[in-house]
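Structure record:
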Amino acid sequence: MTLFFRTPLLLSGLLASLCACAQTPATPTPANDYPVQVSLAGKTYTLGNEEQRCTLLKPDHSALPLDMPWPCHFSVGSDGKAHVETYKNVPIVIVLHVMPIAQNSLECRSEYRALRLNNEQLEPSVIARSASCLRGTGDQKDYTALFDW
């Protein structure tokens, strides 16, 4: 094929792929598609909505208010389930509240806090705030830096 025919063909393929990308906006996934249950030390913990506030429901049916807005969810592992990070033999999870600034916006405001199960005591960290739509596992320091060790 000559250069005369290859250039328009290449340009039309490039234009078609750009149009396809432009037609599918990447909007943040609704919070109800994210994990709200996690297993720590063989016990199941569930996030719940109490008067539009995020609450952690413990296995003994008591509730721990997390001082974050609803909806909230756990950080997502590569398997689509809640990610549990272990540091110094202590399991840690992150609870997130992520809210787009506007509908179909790629800008978000988020709040998150880590929860660790240390000596069978559940300890919440301070709340951290971010301008991010990310909901994945994050880095180990996201789990550990919010606590005194």
Notes: Helices lie at 3-23, 140-144. The radius of gyration is 21 Å. The longest helix spans residues 3-23. The chain has one domain: 28-144.
